[in-house]
């Protein structure tokens, strides 16, 4: 079912455009402002060059790693992406089945268009059918205007077997003119007060409105840390004192993200920021990165600069739009195969071999 001319994530991106209504495509590719940050996320990867180790043995090589105590066959996760039924009728169900088949870790968005319990059940069912271990599954939390609603989401995610909570801190307020088509909705939030992300600024003034009162704060992080025994990862831009504060508040991991250039234009590329964040964290917790990861060599570059794993977001929608479950499975396979090839050509048998010494630094 996969046409032979689809050989890279770029091929899927190009093809997806023809498969999606213009408004949905515009939503997927949305950027803040002039798109400086969006473009820079990619450009940062393209500025880095690699240097191989000569004559290194590749015996016993593997792309596997352990993250928060859980085995990952490949250090690439499918990141949280809202409303996946925009791209394919099966939406998040297709994604989780594909991820399970390939052992790929994934993060379900609060704004999933399929209820989180159904996604968790589909994961177990697929693992059972395929006779494989269920792939790692995390839940991304957008704090809700009412704390009891956030607590309900947390309890539901725990009960359904999600293994970590990702608190997204960078999209508290956002302009959005996109209107969901009939049949696609925030399936987890039925009966809850409208989330701030749905009730977006939409061109109106912000200050003095309920939107700013509902933006998450340090108190919310402290509440979350106390409210669950699951590992909590913080997703967004965390530098300097904020980073220390998040670690002191008990964050178990960081996902360095500028929300794919969708929120504040002018933020630095995540890859450019990574060395300083990794140095500050100094191995105390895992640092993950997203934003513009599209090839195996991108994964290599992020790991050489201090990330323990990366996430991809828009590519999930591209793959879903083009080929549903098979497309997402192919996406997971492509990135792992490209990573293996890059590691072999670099003379790196394991992810631990991906260090700064593999980078040609004169350019940076
Ligand atoms: C997102 N992103 C996102 N993040 C999050 O924490 N919760 C969410 O519900 C969503 N939803 C969402 C929808 C769409 C259409 C896009 C494109 C993105 C952000 C996403 O997880 C990621 O941080 C960025 O998209 C950067 O990665 P890519 O797209 O460059 O791989």
Structural shape:
globular
* Termini Cα gap: 42 Å
Topology pattern, helix = H, strand = E: HHHEEEEHEHEHEHHEHEHEHEHE
Order the strands across the largest sheet as they lie in space: 4-11-10-9-8-7-6-5
The radius of gyration over CA amounts to: 20 Å
Overall number of strands: 12
Main structural class: alpha/beta
Q: For this entry, what is the oligomeric state of its chains? A: single chain
Which ligands occur here? ligand FNR
Amount of helix: 40-55%
Describe the biggest sheet?
Answer: 8 strands, parallel
Average pLDDT metric: 94
Residue stretches low in confidence (pLDDT < 50, at least 5 long) are none
Separate helix tally: 12
Which strand-content bin applies to the residues? 5-15%
Keywords: Flavoprotein, FMN, Oxidoreductase
GO molecular function, one term: oxidoreductase activity
Binding site for glyoxylate: 142, 259, 262
Protein name: Alpha-hydroxy-acid oxidizing protein
């Amino acid at each position: 079912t996969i046409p032979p001319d689809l050989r890279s994530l770029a091929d899927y991106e190009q093809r997806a455009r023809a498969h999606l209504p213009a408004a949905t495509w515009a939503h997927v590719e949305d950027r803040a402002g002039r798109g400086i940050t969006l473009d820079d996320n990619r450009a940062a990867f393209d500025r880095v060059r690699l240097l191989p180790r000569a004559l290194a043995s590749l015996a016993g090589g593997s792309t596997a790693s352990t993250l928060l105590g859980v085995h990952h066959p490949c250090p690439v996760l499918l990141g949280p992406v809202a409303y996946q039924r925009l791209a394919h009728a099966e939406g998040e169900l297709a994604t989780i089945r594909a991820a399970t088949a390939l052992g790929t870790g994934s993060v379900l968005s609060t704004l999933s268009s399929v209820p989180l319990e159904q996604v968790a059940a589909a994961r177990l069912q697929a693992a059972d059918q395929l006779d494989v271990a269920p792939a790692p599954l995390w839940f991304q939390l957008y704090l809700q205007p009412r704390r009891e609603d956030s607590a309900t989401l947390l309890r539901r995610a725990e009960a359904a077997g999600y293994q970590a909570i990702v608190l997204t801190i960078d999209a508290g307020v956002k302009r959005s003119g996109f209107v969901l088509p009939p049949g696609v909705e925030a399936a987890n939030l039925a009966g809850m007060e409208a989330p701030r992300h749905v009730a977006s600024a939409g061109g109106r003034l912000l200050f003095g409105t309920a939107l700013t009162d509902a933006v998450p704060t340090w108190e919310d992080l402290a509440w979350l840390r106390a409210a669950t025994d699951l590992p909590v990862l913080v997703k967004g831009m965390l530098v300097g004192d904020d980073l220390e504060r998040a670690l002191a508040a008990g964050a178990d991991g960081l996902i360095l993200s500028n929300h794919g250039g969708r929120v504040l234009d002018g933020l630095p590329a995540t890859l450019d920021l990574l060395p300083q964040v990794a140095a500050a964290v100094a191995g105390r917790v895992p640092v993950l990165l997203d934003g513009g990861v599209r090839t195996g060599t991108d994964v290599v570059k992020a790991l050489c600069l201090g990330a323990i794993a990366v996430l991809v977001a828009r590519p999930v929608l591209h793959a879903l739009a083009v080929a549903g479950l098979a497309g997402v499975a192919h996406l997971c396979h492509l990135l792992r195969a490209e990573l293996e090839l890059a590691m072999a050509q670099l003379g790196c048998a394991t992810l631990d071999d991906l260090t700064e010494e593999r980078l040609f630094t004169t350019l940076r």
